[in-house]
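Support request, please re-run this one:
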Amino acid sequence: MPIKIEPVILIVIGILLFLFLGVYLLISKFYGVYRLSKRLESYTIEPLVEHGSSVGDSVYLVGLDMLERLSRWLGKSELVGEYSKRYEIYLTHKETSSFCLIEFIAKKMVWGILFLGFYFLLCGFQIYEPSILWTLFFFLFGFFLPDIYWEVKRRKRTSQIEEDLLKAVTIMGNSFKAGKSITQSLEIVSKELSGPLGEEFYRMHVDLKFGLELEMVLERFYQRVPIEEVRYITTSLIILNRTGGNISDIFESIETNFLDQRKLTKELKSTTASADAISKILMFLPFFIVLLIRFLNPTYFNVLFQTTLGFLLLFIIIVLYIIYIIVIHHIMKIDY
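Re-run finished. Output below.
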C-alpha cells in the first residue's frame, strides 16, 4: 500500500543513510589496522606531545564505535547468536571469536540500511511510490546481499585450497620420508605454503601446540574445508595415528591418487563444458526475454508492480523461477 511522504524528506533520509554507509566503508578499510594498533598499544611508549587526531580519524573512530555498539547490542539476543553460527565457515584463523560472528550480522544490517536509503532516494525523486512492501524488499535484499559475496569468496578460497592440496601432500610426504612427525609436517607445510591452505595448516599446528588431540584438530579442519580430498587426508592420518604403519608409503600413494584424480577431473570438465554452458544459457534466458519485452513495450509489466494481484503473480513467478533453476541444475549436473 502506498504511503504519502514528502519527496524532500525521503531524499534527506536517503542521503543520511548513504553518509552512514560512507562511515561504515571507512571503518571496514581501517578496521584491521585499528585492532592491531590496540594490541600493540601496551608495548609502545606514549608521545610526550599530543597532536590530536585528524577529522578523518575522528569520523573513523566514531563509526567504529557505532559498529561495535551495534554488534554488542545484537550479541545480547540469543536468536541472533544462534543465527550467526552459520557464518562460522567464513571465518579465517585470524577471526575465531563469537564476537566476529556477530559482526557478520552487524555488517548485513548496515547493507540493509544502505539499500533502504537507496530506495528512499528513488522515492524522493518520484521514481517509485513509497510502500511498506517495497521498503521491506529493499532492506531484505541489502541484508542478504553480503551472503552472496561471502559465499563467492568462500568458494574461491576452497578452489584455491583444492589447487594447493597436492603441494601440501607432496611436502608432507617428503617430510615423513625425512623422519618428521605429523605435528612437524603440519608446521613445515604452514611455512612452505602461502594463501588459505597455509593458514589452515598453521591453525592446525597452533591447535596441536595448545594441547588439542590430533583427531579433533583434523576433524575441525575437515569441518572448515568440507571437500573429499581433505577428508581422505584426515582419515588417513587418523587411522595411521591409531594403528601405525609406514606413513611415507601411504602419502606416496595418496599423492599418486591425487595426480590421477586431477587429470580425470580436467578431462571430465572439458567433456561437460557444453552441458554447463547450456544450463547457464537456460538460466539467464528468462531475463533476456523480459528485457526484450520491456524494450518493445515499456509499460507491459507495470501491472505487476501496481496491484495486489500483480504482486501475487510476481511472487509466484519468482518461486517458479527458483524451481526452474533447481530442475535445470539437476538435469545438467554430472557427478564425477
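Residues 7-42+54-130 form one domain. The chain has 13 helices and no strands.
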